[in-house]
Queue: 2 jobs
Job 1
Amino acid sequence: MNAIACQVVAIEALTHVVSKVVLAPAAPVNFIAGQYLQLCLTATDKRPFSIASTPEQPLLELHIGAAAGDNWSGAALTHLQQQFAAGEPVQVEVGLGHAAWQANSDRPIVLLAGGTGFSYVHSIALAIAAAKKDIPVLLYWGVKSEDALYYQTELASWAASNRKYQVIPVVQEPSAQWQGRRGLVHEAVLQDIVSLEAYDIYMAGPFAMAGVAREAFIAQGGHREHMFADAFAYI
Ligand SMILES: Cc1cc2nc3c(=O)[nH]c(=O)nc-3n(C[C@H](O)[C@H](O)[C@H](O)COP(=O)(O)OP(=O)(O)OC[C@H]3O[C@@H](n4cnc5c(N)ncnc54)[C@H](O)[C@@H]3O)c2cc1C
């Protein structure tokens, strides 16, 4: 796959761990909502990041979680920051993965995000709304603590755009003030949906979450061929 040069337009903090990175490609890029890109640190060191934006948007948006000591994401973010400061482009390979949105399906949808897996479901959620799909779409976003949630106003207006769209944040270790759902995010899905047989399920997040969720969802009626996650290639 050919790499394309992108200017780094902005890097800003979404939380104390996650940064939003905006890239302007030197030429139009092709991808489907839910695909990822690889950031080329060198000719051989390429790191995958979900594309948070949609194909219709001219700029590429990434959400990179780089906690202290996280060398994998941290090195990618450092590279982006260095190129941004120098006004130099980065090289990316766009349009990868096998978990893209199936736009022709009219089955109800579960979007399951663990942590920065939100980037992936964000792209698909926006694409679904832009296509005016009038189907149930349940967006579950699991985080360790509630300060890891962002884009809450944007998500509220997404949910308000169709009464069949819903956002369910699930916090694993909430503060005493948290009034919403708690626990592991895939367990909230299992509690809410008695049979997953009818659903298309898209998931991104820690690989361990994808593995556990896949098995639990199959046990609750979900079909493997209607589950989409690039993490499956790694587990
Ligand atoms: C194709 C691809 C694309 C990627 N894209 C990105 C990207 O865009 N941005 C990025 O930063 N990284 C990306 N990564 C790297 C990796 O997926 C992330 O590092 C990972 O999602 C980080 O999760 P987290 O630390 O934010 O989640 P955590 O904060 O660790 O977990 C969030 C929630 O996930 C659930 N969960 C976690 N562990 C388990 C478990 N063992 N069992 C059940 N549920 C669990 C819980 O509900 C938990 O609250 C990508 C990797 C690949 C292969």
Job 2
Amino acid sequence: MTQEGFTYAFNPSACATCGGKCCTGESGNIFVSVTEIAAIAKLLEMDEGEFRRTFLRKEGFRFSLKEKIVKGSFDCVFFDRSQNGCSIYTARPLQCRTFPFWDYFRHRIDELKAECPGIIHD
Ligand code: SF4
Ligand code: SF4
């Protein structure tokens, strides 16, 4: 898989054995828009207010998904280790859908390769 403007490619089959490195590890923000908040709450059949209180934290003027610490790793609250995947996959935020083709990584390919085993770059 390639994307215009990026010099690397991505092999999604690497996700099967990776253990969700992009959803776990170091602490970070997983930003969600108001539209995404509504979509995830709907998927979980939760009241939106309850969803926000349970799963979101405020980061400045934005909202991020919370994390849970598992064996010293900061896992996204929706990463399911038993299934090795995202428990809200069909409603996952744009930030997750667009990984690994983020502007941030465009010129930080070594950093990206260290995080994601699916990156192909000569
Ligand atoms: S780090 Fe890369 S290979 Fe691993 S789950 Fe995320 S996208 Fe897939
Ligand atoms: S929402 Fe899903 S894809 Fe996104 S970081 Fe959390 S577990 Fe990973």
